[in-house]
Amino acid sequence: MNAGYVLDDVTIGELGRGDLVVANLVAALDEHAVRMSVPAIALAVAQHTLSEAQADAVHGMIHRLEHVRLEPIASTEDVLRLSAVSVQLTEQQDMAAAHTVAVARYLGFPILAADLKRWEPVRALVPWELDIYEISG
Amino acid sequence: MTADMTSIKVPKALRDELNELANQAGRGTTLADVLTRLLEEHKTTRLRQRLAFEELLARAKADPDAVARAERITQGAIEHLRRPQAS
To answer: ipTM, 2 decimals?
Structure first.
């Protein structure tokens, strides 16, 4: 499958904190060959609230699941894509959201969000429609 | 040691860093020793990370409620990907 999701910082954090539904979800999506992108800055921000052991579990997921990939900032093109989004958010610095949106736009993937409310302020500021799938139920 | 030896090309700065580690580790430590130790540390870190995730996954799979909820969300998530895109 060439389709997939971009994980946001809250989802990554929930996984690290041991949310069993999120853990089962990423494993099931991986089994269905759904790609999952982990933006590096979203990961970095998620780790602010994780212990080393919790961060280990997230890094373990990235290395263990075949369809999960870390999305780094590795080129000037990556920087341009990030900056094009972060400039929309200067009123409310949110680099994790900026990188997540930049990756989502680049890959054409929806964002996988554990909490839709996290995205309300971002939606109000960016001039694009954000495709966000909320993990609920 | 009679193992087959080979040489690898690295930038001088990297070689100097490896030499520094060898010096710190004490007399007789070769660059091969340093690289072996670094690889071991790397493998240990990776293993620790994988085990942490696998432990979490095992707990998740052993929780029937979490499994059922995740299955519903997975189906919804896959359907969401399959819907026709507005261009």
So the answer is: 0.92
A59 to chain B, closest Cα gap in Å: 6
Q: 């373990």: which residue's tokens?
A: A60
**Which chain A residues contact residue B51 at CB under 8 A?**
60
Q: Which residues of B touch A3 (CB under 8 A)?
A: 81
Whether pTM > 0.80 for this model: the answer is yes
> What CATH number should be reported for the domain whose range is A4-134?
3.40.50.1010
Residue B84: band (very low, low, confident or very high) from pLDDT cuts 50, 70, 90: confident
Q: Nearest chain B Cα to A129, which residue?
A: B86
Instruction: Spell out the domain ranges in chain A.
Output: 4-134
Q: Closest by alpha carbon to A29, among A119, A109, A125? A: A109
Half-sphere exposure at residue A6, Cβ-oriented, CA atoms within 13 angstroms: 28
